[in-house]
Amino acid sequence: MDHRLLEIVACPVCKGKVTLDNDKQELICKLDRLAYPIKEGIPVMLEVEARKMAMDEGR
């Protein structure tokens, strides 16, 4: 994923910053504990598509 795009993409729920998890191909919102998938290089920034993260995940 292009790092320039990462600078402008925000969580659609809280409008906060997201971080990239290259291993899982997800964008992570630590505030909402949501992981948005990246499919074929395109982030899917829909709350209904996001995976809820476990409390111990992403620390």
Question: Which SSEs are present, and which pair or pack?
Answer:
Elements: H1 3-8, E1 19-21, E2 26-29, E3 34-39, E4 42-43, E5 51-52
Antiparallel strand pairs: 1-2, 2-3, 3-4, 3-5
The level-1 CATH class:
Mainly Beta
Structure class:
mainly beta
Taken in chain order, the helices and strands follow as HEEEEE
The largest sheet is: 5 strands, antiparallel
Q: What is the count of distinct domains? A: 1
What is the level-2 CATH architecture name?
Single Sheet
Helix count from the secondary structure assignment: 1
Instruction: Kindly identify the CATH topology.
Output: N-terminal domain of TfIIb
Q: What is the first-to-last residue Cα distance?
A: 22 Å
Strand content: 25-35%
The level of helicity is: 10-25%
Give a count of the beta strands, DSSP E runs of length 2 or more.
Answer: 5
Family: Belongs to the UPF0434 family.
GO cellular component, one term: cytosol
Pfam family, one: Trm112p
InterPro entries: Trm112-like
